[in-house]
Amino acid sequence: MKIAIACDHGALELKEYLKTLLTELGHEVKDFGTHTLERCNYPEIITPAVRAVAAGEYERGIVMCTTGIGVSIAANKIRGIRCALCTGVWQAEMTRRHNDSNVLALGAGITGPNLAAEIVKTWLSTGFDGGRHATRVGMLTELDEER
To answer: Would you say domain 2-145 falls under CATH 3.20.20.70?
Structure first.
């Protein structure tokens, strides 16, 4: 799978850890930054990655900051993105099964690397259930079109 990944300075270590994991799992990963611990603004860093997912250049995206909150809000401002902030494996499974999320947000100050790895693996390996959930995702798409 082609995955876009990005973070701010607060999640650099987690991003590097997950980038290695994803590559070892056979995924193609594009790192949109940041690449240093120098303070940066998460909307500027993650937006190119999220836009690449929205444009279909990447199948999924993973964005990170210290809490995951800011990057999830920013990602969801991009039309066509359904970003879910997950702090547990069950959330990762359910956001794929029920919401067909295409971007995952993680908080490096909240979720350690081992749990983050399990969240990412579950999120990437879980499919969308469709059915009644497709109706709801369609409603989300309609909300996007109102912008």
So the answer is: no
